[in-house]
Amino acid sequence: MTSRAHPILTAGAGKTTLMYRILYFSIFMDADNQFRTIVIQYLQHTYLDEPARTTIHFYFNHQSTTDITVPRLMAYLLAELVKQRALNTTIAKLKAFKDKNFKPSDSDILAMLKEEINSYDNGVYCVFDALDEAPELDRLSIINHLIADLPSKARMIFTFRDLPEIANLFREQHNVRRLLITGKGEDLKIYINHVFEENPRLNRLAQQGPRRDEVVKTVIKRAAGM
Questions:
Q1: In this structure, which CATH number among 3.20.20.80, 3.40.50.300, 3.20.20.70, 3.30.565.10 belongs to the domain 4-182?
Q2: How large is the average pLDDT for residues 173-188?
Q3: Model-level pTM?
């Protein structure tokens, strides 16, 4: 995996479910995020016993990102790292700010974040999920600051719907790999059949009208990869 990557997922393809299973849920359960996605769970489980590498994530929830700013995002990332393992220097600095009743400046937070990331010999996977839900006017600033301000050991993964206005934001970035992910018809078929089996009433309705196979084919066609 390159140090900069942004998978692009079709709307409804399950990007949030995929991403949160990447993070190993037993590590980062908290009040704000009660579940994690496939990619995150995979990364955390894979490197669970490797102290030289770790994984953090941020989910752009459209209901709570209206006031997201780059400094707040950096502070969140620092908090995620400190919850796992913190350098003695970071602990001392945070304690000093607390004792003096001072709030760390944006530059203080960024400096501590860089030190924490660089303390991992094999880097930190930073997963930013659902970028398309971030305020449209803030997306370019967020991307530019993350790529420019974070050290090379921050291996960033961005997920978003395949929207041209977002994809274009990455075109001038170097060392970026794009991966288009859509729902497969066979996977949708398995899921739809499971829904029928779990819902006897729905199954009966399908048998009274169109044949069940016709319903499955129609849903898959209309889903168009979603």
A1: 3.40.50.300
A2: 77
A3: 0.66
